[in-house]
Amino acid sequence: MNMELSRRAFLRTSGAGLAGTTLGAFGFGEAEAAVAAHVKPFHLANTVEARNTCTYCSVACGIIIFAKGDLRKGEKADIVHIEGDADHPTNRGTLCPKGAALLNIVKSETRLTQPMVRKPGSDKFEPISWDAALDKIARAMKDDRDANFIAKNKDGVTVNRWLTTGFLAASATTNETAFATYKVVRSTGMVAFDNQARV
Amino acid sequence: MSTDIQPDPTVIGAVSTPPFAVAPDPSSLFPIRARRLRAYAAVSPMKPYLDFVAGLVDAQAETVALAPAAIPAEQVARATEFGMPPLDRSALAADPAFTPTLDILFDAVAKRPMPEPAAAALARLRQAGDAVRAEIAGNVLAHAVPVEALAEHAFMAAGLEVLATRLAATLDPKALRPVSETAVCPACGGPPVASLIVEWPNAHGNRFCACELCATLWNYVRIKCVSCGSTKGIGYQEVEGGPGTVKAETCDECRTYVKVLHQHKDPSMEALADDIGSLPLDMLMREGAYRRAAYNPFLLGY
């Protein structure tokens, strides 16, 4: 009777349980039973390792995020460690001091988790909804562009420049996002623009 | 004026340049493995078994002194050309070193104390003719072991490990190439017994799979199922409250697990020894949804 043995189903079919293992066959069934009794009070803990991209700069280093608990199994996940991804061709496991401190950013009490606004004359930031924040930004950009847009230079040549506002976009984006960002920003005439898509 | 020295900022710091494969060193492998098994034995309720396997590994260490056979260069070249492992597993039983290796190993093992079932199995193996031995070896290499003769096959596996390790040590690891998308040993085509996260001068946090048979190590991307090659649905399970050095890497695609050993946290870890020593993890995993995919002749049945 030949059968594939590294299958847990096998133990069930063998009936005798301990006799169906190498330990049992060598005559160490007692030691095996001792281990089985020893592990009874113990439980398994789920941990997760996930690949991601460092959000800091356009080098876009690969990172591995370690968490206790698995969201996919209906648990709460708590990030416990972040390190450079040794398999990533860009950084091959290394991180700069800022990247090496990513865990402290995740855990930071002063970390920005929602849009905040400091109103004119105020000395503190207060929460604002995404809709209100985007409306406010759009209003300010439109007003500034209307006041400062340069359609022609002093020689009368059409230049369509908007020099009084700049735009900085994030590095952890896809090519498609970077393309759309570029088209939107350049079509307004904005010159000071970096979407960190240089790599 | 000397202008030879040019600053090269790109090499500052220790950047990982892991080799694809690392050949085993038969003279140090088995002593390291035995030492590790005894370290587990000192604190484990399965001390008798760990001591027994450590004794078996000691006997393997005595056997490696035999002059190593070499794999013909043309066989290596042909295997490399066609993306096949150069070490032919099926030819191991026909190797001229097969019978002498087994005889020396079994004689050395027989001097050690062991339970009656093990001693009886060893006696049957020592008396067995070449044909019976070749058949048992074939079963071990095909991972199709008859349930009524597990002990004979585990002893045979120990002999084949010595043979294959000696042969793999003669291969040039730089010439080895991946033979599969999944974790398949580039030297002998076998499955891994476990994988190691290493901390070496040229490999920081890289993962290497360890071949059960020939002990060759090969680089394999982390967070990727060694059984089916999937990178989706990978999770890790460990005994709660433990040191976090041994984890079961589970795959939701093929519903299996293989252990990951965090050797960078404990440099004394050795793949096969730690797989046996961490049997409690397998016992707990048995209650769950994932089945064991690793092959270890000393843990058959899990």
Can you give a write-up of this model?
The complex is a heterodimer of chains A (199) and B (302). Chain A has 7 helices and 10 strands. Chain A has 199 residues and is α+β, with helices and mostly antiparallel strands. Chain A folds into 3 domains: 32 residues, no CATH class; 61 residues, Single Sheet (N-terminal domain of TfIIb), CATH 2.20.25; 79 residues, no CATH class. Chain A is 33% helix and 21% strand. By secondary structure, chain B is of the alpha+beta class. Chain B has 2 domains: 150 residues, FdhE-like fold, CATH 3.90.1670; 125 residues, Alpha-Beta Complex (FdhE-like fold). In chain B, 38% of the residues lie in helices and 16% in strands. In chain B, strands 1, 3, 4, 5, 6, 7, 8 and 9 form an 8-stranded mixed beta sheet that branches. In chain B, β3 and β4 form a beta hairpin. In chain B, α2 packs across α7 and α5 crosses α7. Chain B is globular and about 70 Å long. The model of chain B has no long low-confidence stretch (mean pLDDT 92). At the A-B interface, β1, α1, α2, α3 and β2 of A face α2, α5, β2, α7 and β4 of B. β1 of chain A pairs antiparallel with β2 of chain B, so a sheet runs across the interface.
> Span between N and C termini of chain B?
69 Å
Mean pLDDT of chain A: 87
Query: Alpha-carbon distance between the termini of chain A?
Result: 59 Å
Radius of gyration of chain B: 20 Å
Largest sheet of chain B: 8 strands, mixed
Low-confidence stretches of chain B: none
Compute the number of strand runs of chain B: 9
Q: Summarize the largest interface: chains and residue counts.
A: A-B, 52 and 69 residues
Please state the second-level CATH architecture of the largest domain in chain B.
Answer: Alpha-Beta Complex
Count of domain modules of chain A: 3
> What would you call the quaternary organization?
heterodimer
List the secondary-structure elements of chain A in sequence, H or E.
EHHHEEEHHEEHEEEHE
Spatially, the strands of the biggest sheet of chain A line up as: 2-3-4
The number of distinct structural domains of chain B comes to 2
Protein name (chain B): Protein FdhE homolog
Pfam families (chain B): FdhE_C (PF24860), FdhE_central (PF24859), FdhE_N (PF04216)
Keywords (chain B): Cytoplasm
Family (chain B): Belongs to the FdhE family.
